[in-house]
Amino acid sequence: MLVIKIPSSQPYFFLGHTVVHEGKKFAFHLVPCGILYPNVKNILGNGTVISLEALFKEIASVEKENIDFTGRLILSNRAHIVTKMHLLADAQSESKSGGIFRLYNRQ
After folding, report:
1. CB neighbourhood size of 13 (10 A)
2. How many whole angstroms separate alpha carbon 31 and alpha carbon 50?
């Protein structure tokens, strides 16, 4: 079985990639594209920053296409969970310091 791991060196869940699989377009930010293949285990590894809101949206889009990933999406117990509250606090902190966070936090 092939294993795809999202490394901790890519902690930003707003980065991503688009994959066309069997004529359908998928936009992934957190979920590894291996989720499209039934023989691949997919790991969100140590240190990966995970927005629960973003993760649930991606899972919903995969489920909408009737892709069964039961037992194939694994979340490390050392991944970092980020909530909306964390994002708001970061945005407020960055805006006070003139940081670049707001450039990436467009709705």
Report:
1. 20
2. 10
Q: Kindly report, residue by residue over 40-53, the tens digit of the pLDDT.
A: 999 998 888 888 88
Q: What is the CA radius of gyration of the chain?
A: 15
Give the CA distances from residue 59 to residues 11, 24, 29, 68, 95, in Å, rounded to whole numbers and listed in that order.
18, 16, 11, 11, 31
Prediction pTM value: 0.68
Where do the domains of the chain lie, and which CATH numbers do they carry?
2-104 (3.40.440.10)
- The tally of CA atoms less than 13 A away on the side-chain side of residue 100 is 0
Nearest-angstrom CA–CA distance, 35 and 72: 7
